[in-house]
Amino acid sequence: MSLSVQARPLAEHDHGHGQVSVQGAIIDTPCAIAVESRDQSIVMATLPVTRLLRDGQGPKQVFSIHLINCTLTPALFDQHDWSKFRVTFDGPVSDGSLFALKGEGKGIGLQISDSNGNVALPGQAMPAGLLQPPDMIIRFYLRLVENHQPLRVGSYGATIRFKLDYY
User: Fold this and answer.
1) Helical spans, DSSP H, in 11-162
2) What tens digit of pLDDT does each residue of 85-138 get?
3) Interacting residues of 101 by C-beta distance below 8 A, sequence separation 6+
4) Which partner for 132 in 63, 71, 73, 136 could form a disulfide, CB atoms 3.0-4.6 Å apart?
5) Phi and psi torsions of 51, nearest 5°
6) Are the beta carbons of 83 and 73 closer than 8 angstroms?
7) Of 120, 157, 156, the residue nearest 140 (C-alpha)
8) pTM of the prediction?
9) Rounded distance, CA 31 to CA 55, Å?
10) Is 117 helix (H, G, I), strand (E, B) or coil?
């Protein structure tokens, strides 16, 4: 749901009136995404070039999506019960299977995997998971992986979007 509220005077000399604009959406989903899971900033550990050269990847960094108020019965009568979900991560692509990074650091991409070891491919849904009402936490792991380009030291960053589909 999106909500935008504004209040502003209608005229410079008239300070006793204002205007409020409201917009939003009503959706029918089995779960809500907890506020703290919607927009996350994850700080990756500093990684020496020697480790990337030796191992080809960095250590895993955990992050999670917290689903709340889950129910398996849809509110509308013409829909079937929900029991599964799929997560899709999307963003710029590096080396076909990694998420691209921006910044000075080069020769690396970002890999996302779930707690079962399934690797997320940019823009493709991951294997289905089962919904567990009323709340559940889905854990994922980030790691830097060489992308077969020349390594260059420096800072990096990425923005990756995710969506959940229920069925």
Assistant:
1) 35-38, 49-55
2) 999 999 999 988 999 999 999 999 999 999 999 999 999 999 999 988 888 999
3) 94, 108, 109, 110, 156, 157, 158
4) 136
5) -70, -40
6) no
7) 120
8) 0.79
9) 39
10) coil
